Amino acid sequence: MATLQNILQDIGAILNQDTTIPTGTDLSMQVNLIDQALKEWGEAYEWKQLRVTGFAPSTLLSMTSLGLPTNYEKLMSPPRDVVNNFTYEELRPELRFAKDVADYYCYTGGDDAVGHWITFNPALPSGASINFDFQSTPSSMATLQDVLVAPSKNFIVQRVLAKVYESRQDPRFPQFNSEANNSMVQMIQEESALSGAQKNKAVTYYDKQGFRIGG
Question: Which residues contact 200 (CB under 8 A, 6 or more apart)?
Answer without folding.
Answer: 194
